[in-house]
Amino acid sequence: MNTTSGFRPGLFAGKHVAITGAGRGIGAAIAEYLVRDGATVFAHLGRDGNQSHWHFPAGGDDQKNLTTCCGDLSDEAEAKAMAEKAMDALDHVDILINNAGTMLGRVPASKMTAAHYRQVSDLNAQSVVVVTTGLLPALQKATSQAAIVNVTSISANTGGSPGSSIYSAAKGFVSTYTRSLATELAGDNIRVNAISPGTIDTDFHQRYSTKEKLARTAANTPLGRLGTAEDCVSACLFLAAPEMSGYITGQIIGINGGIAF
Ligand SMILES: NC(=O)c1ccc[n+]([C@@H]2O[C@H](COP(=O)([O-])OP(=O)(O)OC[C@H]3O[C@@H](n4cnc5c(N)ncnc54)[C@H](OP(=O)(O)O)[C@@H]3O)[C@@H](O)[C@H]2O)c1
Question: The whole model's pTM is what?
Answer without folding.
Answer: 0.97
